[in-house]
């Protein structure tokens, strides 16, 4: 099958072995798959992963034991958990110590004609939600995770650092709850896309008032945390979204002096993202799609995704 593989760089292959279907799992024919910052970090060495890349997709179930899912258009949670530990029992399989993670750790990803996931990971997509919106369920869920981790009253002033796809999605999700949301980024063209529901945009380097109640760090850079610490008020909250392949140094003294709460935030619940897609149909997700490539153009697509100008780059696995 056609696949995009990480092995000392990004490679398109036309004869990758099709995945074997195991008990309790489903075989999905991929329609669209997206490149995210984590994919770029994986190619750069994050987690030492080798195999098929990708964890953002929408597709149709080709084979599985659950007859009700056959033929359904689905999206899938990316962590395949053991199902037996205390984390899984608490509904937190995304933190299961034995989990494998699609396209990141121990499990081939979705940048291929076919992928596999446990049946329990799959969520049917409402017919009213297009493929180009559904493919963004995973990053939207990651943004919605903030609302599960941090209790908002609605009166908070929020600053989002980073004008990439995740930063913009975080700003949009928080704008449905918070009184004031400002997004800070490097790229005027990306910031122009972010405007929605009164969100303020600021080009990095310009003055941003400190004393924010909540700062979301989604820059994709190790230096982002230092900026977040400077902007957050005493006893405020910083939510970290960045994962990077290379370690960095940071002065954590302000964290102690200002008694700031720091929250690591990763994957979210797909049910929350799908509910938001249905409840807020005006959420302008299509703005984020910069390009859609054939899988054979894998290197070109990854170069475009990493050039700092594109927001979201997709692969169309049904294109001829």
UniProtKB/TrEMBL annotation:
Pfam families, sorted: ADH_N, ADH_zinc_N
Keyword Zinc included in the entry's annotation: yes
Keyword Zinc: yes
Domain Alcohol dehydrogenase-like N-terminal: from-to ranges: 23-125
GO molecular function, one term: metal ion binding
CDD domains: MDR_like
Domain Alcohol dehydrogenase-like C-terminal: 168-274
Keywords of the record: Metal-binding, Oxidoreductase, Zinc
Cofactor: Zn(2+)
Gene3D superfamilies per UniProt: Medium-chain alcohol dehydrogenases, catalytic domain (3.90.180.10), NAD(P)-binding Rossmann-like Domain (3.40.50.720)
InterPro entries: ADH-like_C, ADH-like_N, GroES-like_sf, NAD(P)-bd_dom_sf
Family: Belongs to the zinc-containing alcohol dehydrogenase family.
Name of the protein in its database record: Alcohol dehydrogenase
């Amino acid at each position: 099958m056609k696949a995009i593989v990480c092995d000392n760089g990004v490679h398109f292959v036309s004869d990758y072995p099709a995945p074997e279907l195991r008990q309790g799992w489903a075989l999905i024919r991929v329609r669209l798959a997206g490149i995210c910052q984590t994919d770029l970090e994986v190619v750069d060495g994050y987690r030492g992963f080798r195999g098929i890349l990708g964890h953002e997709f929408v597709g149709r179930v080709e084979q599985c034991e659950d007859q009700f899912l056959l033929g359904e258009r689905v999206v899938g949670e990316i962590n395949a958990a053991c199902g037996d530990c205390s984390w899984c029992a608490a509904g937190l399989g995304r933190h299961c110590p034995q989990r494998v993670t699609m396209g990141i750790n121990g499990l081939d990803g979705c940048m291929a004609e076919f992928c596999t996931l446990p049946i329990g990971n799959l969520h049917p997509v409402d017919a009213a939600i297009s493929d180009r919106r559904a493919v963004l369920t995973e990053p939207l869920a990651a943004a919605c995770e903030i609302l599960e981790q941090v209790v908002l009253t609605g009166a908070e002033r929020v600053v989002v650092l980073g004008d990439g796809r995740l930063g913009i999605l975080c700003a949009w999700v928080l704008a449905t709850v918070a009184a004031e949301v400002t997004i800070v980024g490097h790229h005027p063209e990306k910031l122009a896309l972010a405007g929605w529901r009164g969100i303020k945009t600021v080009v990095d380097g310009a003055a941003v008032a400190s004393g924010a109640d909540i700062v979301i760090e989604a820059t994709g850079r190790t230096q982002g945390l230092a900026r977040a610490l400077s902007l957050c008020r005493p006893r405020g909250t910083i939510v970290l979204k960045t994962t990077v392949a290379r370690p960095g140094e940071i002065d954590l003294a302000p964290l102690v002096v200002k008694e700031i709460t720091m929250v690591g935030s990763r994957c979210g619940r797909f049910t929350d993202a799908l509910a938001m897609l249905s409840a807020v149909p005006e959420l302008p997700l299509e703005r984020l799609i910069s390009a859609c490539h054939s899988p054979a153009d894998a290197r070109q697509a990854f170069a475009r995704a990493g050039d700092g100008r594109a927001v979201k780059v997709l692969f169309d696995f049904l294109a001829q």
